[in-house]
Amino acid sequence: GIFNLKSPCRREFFGNTGGTPGYATFAAGSPDAKLIVVAAINGVGSEALRAFGRLVDRLLCPKP
Question: Cβ distance 3 to 12 under 8 Å?
């Protein structure tokens, strides 16, 4: 399914997250399709997941 996702900078996206054992995924696009982010990581320990979250946040909220 597709969900309405809010970024840390309050931009709206539509996408989904998920994964299987050992993997995490994230895919989202802005309503105007000007920004699309797709990311995946393997080896999902707690520190890796935190780093993955920080990366996704930076991709969703790029600095001008």
Answer: no
Residues 13-41, mean pLDDT to the nearest whole number = 94
Confidence of residue 62 (pLDDT cuts 50, 70, 90): confident
Residue (of 6, 1, 2) closest to 60 by Cα position:
6
Give 16's strand partners.
27
CB 3 within 8 A of CB 14: yes
Whole-number pLDDT of residue 44: 77
| C-alpha 27: how far from chain center | 6
* Three-class secondary structure of residue 62 per DSSP: coil
